[in-house]
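can u do me a favor
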């Protein structure tokens, strides 16, 4: 039995912001499928940033999340027990600020090697950093 559509999809006629109701003509941003009217997506790299997922209240150690709402794609990864982190991929827009930035984890290369580009992180285990550099 098919799942029902999310409420946001029903509210605007079965479409969402990431999937326009009219197909784009010409170049599109590959992560969103939205129109790239000036064609800049073909020459601009994807920038992926590792961001904490603990912004329920401002985190005194790392500060509040910035720029996450402007990402084209956000992956949530389980990194330790119930702790998760976000991989935010930016391509069609570039926020003024992004962060806070967290460390690279062993699963990150498997996610980002598909898109390449730039990966921003705040350090990581010595055996993981070469893997992300290769990705």
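np, heres the sequence
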């Amino acid at each position: 039995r098919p799942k029902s559509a999310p409420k946001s999809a029903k509210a605007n006629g079965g479409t969402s912001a990431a999937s326009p109701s009219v197909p784009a003509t010409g170049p599109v941003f590959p992560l969103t499928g939205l129109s790239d009217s000036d064609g800049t997506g073909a020459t601009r790299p994807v920038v992926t940033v590792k961001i904490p997922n603990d912004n329920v209240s401002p985190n005194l150690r790392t500060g509040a999340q910035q720029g996450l709402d402007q990402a084209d794609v956000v992956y949530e990864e389980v990194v330790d027990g119930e702790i998760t982190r976000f991989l935010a991929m930016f391509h069609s827009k570039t926020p003024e600020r992004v962060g806070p930035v967290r460390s690279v984890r062993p699963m990150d290369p498997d996610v980002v090697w598909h898109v390449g580009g730039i990966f921003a992180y705040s350090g990581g285990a010595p055996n993981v950093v070469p893997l992300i550099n290769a990705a």
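Helices lie at 7-11, 108-112, 129-134. hope that helps!!
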